[in-house]
Design a protein that fits this description.
This protein is α/β, with parallel strands linked by helices. It folds into 2 domains: 2-245, ANL, N-terminal domain (Rossmann fold, 3-Layer(aba) Sandwich), CATH 3.40.50.12780; 253-348, ANL, C-terminal domain (GMP Synthetase, Chain A, domain 3). It contains 9 helices and 19 strands. Helix 1 crosses helix 3 (84-96) and helix 2 (53-67) crosses helix 3 (84-96). The longest helix has 15 residues, at 53-67.
Length: 354
């Protein structure tokens, strides 16, 4: 754990991870104008992207304005600083003159924090879920003293959304990527004014291409159009509903299936089995071309439980959206940013993707 309070007098690092934090802060404070960052690798091989100082400053200022951050507020940095989410927490600190509490990424970043007044934090869903499931009143007190919490990097499940309702601090799910320099849209997931739709931040313009995939224009993108593979429904000029990824559509026997829609349908049944993580996928099939399967992060389920689960899914699903098989694996493969690496997991199961 390391506290940065004075950027003119950076603390000494006590670990390799803290050294990475200090190294980035130094080159930023020296005025470096461009930075090479890696994408998360959740939808393909990680690739390097060049971002300008101007883009990163614009993003940091917009976050500060959106969530009412003030000089000397304390922000918790618990996301990997080798990727955009963690790097931008450092940039926000330096641009907005925030104090930063640096903690190496872990499933529960509050584990060793006692009675610390933190004003702002960014988590991945697994981290916030681990904190809530710890049933530690001190941890809840730390969260509830914050001005806002943002959650990104993966979808927030219905089960987790329900768990978050115990918090009085405003919690926002975020939408963004390395190319947009972190988040460009948020949706509130607790208290009043909750929504299933994302609202873009001030100055961000959105549109769609011929596939109905979102495109984005913002100061953080250097006013260059960023085309995504995310299928959306445009609700209003500044609001959209995320449907799923264009490359998460499989063709099974000539029928196109959106995998996120399947996951949403089966989510309640799987969570009833006390299983927190799962995904739908398409694997090679001689007859169908691709067949729909479910992969659950769990020790082996017996055949009777799988049979009952499929029966429950059949009761609420269209014929073509019923999984052909259910597979289990004790732990999912993950990307360096903690997202599920579906392709690596499928490979470990000795299944052939298509």
């Amino acid at each position: 754990m390391m506290l940065i309070e004075d950027y003119n007098n950076l603390p000494k690092s006590n670990s390799d991870y803290e050294e990475k934090v200090i190294a980035f802060c130094k080159i930023w404070l020296e005025g470096q104008e461009s930075f090479i960052l890696k994408t998360s690798g959740s939808t393909g091989e990680p690739k390097p992207i060049s971002l300008s100082r101007k883009q990163m400053e614009a993003s940091a200022l917009l976050t500060g304005k959106t969530f009412g951050l003030k000089e000397r507020d304390l922000a918790l940095v618990c996301l990997n600083v080798e990727y955009i989410a963690g790097i931008m927490m450092l940039v926000r600190g330096m641009v907005l003159n925030l104090k930063l509490l640096i903690i190496p990424p872990s499933s529960n970043p509050l584990l060793n924090i006692e009675n610390q007044k933190i004003d702002f934090a960014a988590f991945v869903p697994l981290q916030l879920q681990s904190i809530l499931e710890s049933n530690n009143q001190n941890h809840l007190n730390v969260l509830n003293q914050m001005k806002a919490i943002i959650v990104g990097g993966a979808a927030v499940s219905q089960q987790m959304a329900e768990q978050i309702q115990v918090l009085s601090v405003p919690v926002y799910s975020t939408y963004g990527m390395t190319e947009t320099v972190s988040h460009i849209a948020t949706r509130k997931i607790n208290e009043e004014n909750t929504s299933q739709n994302f609202k873009v931040l001030a100055g961000v313009k959105i549109g769609i291409d011929e596939r109905n995939c979102l495109n984005i224009l913002a100061a953080a993108s250097n006013f260059e159009l960023v085309q995504t593979n995310d299928l959306v429904e445009i609700i209003a000029e500044n609001e959209f509903k995320l449907i799923g990824r264009f490359d998460n559509i499989i063709n099974s026997g000539g029928v196109k299936i959106q995998l996120e829609k399947v996951e949403k349908t089966v989510e309640t049944f799987i969570e009833a089995l006390q299983i927190n993580r799962f995904f739908a996928f398409g694997i090679a099939d001689e007859r169908l071309g691709q067949k729909l399967i479910l992969v659950l992060e769990s020790e082996n389920l017996d055949d009777e439980i799988k049979r009952r689960l499929l029966e429950e899914i059949k009761s609420v699903s269209d014929t073509y959206q019923i999984p052909k098989n259910i597979f289990t694996i004790s732990t999912f493969s993950e990307t360096p940013t903690g997202k599920i690496d579906k392709k690596a997991t499928i490979k470990r199961l000795n299944l052939q993707e298509k």
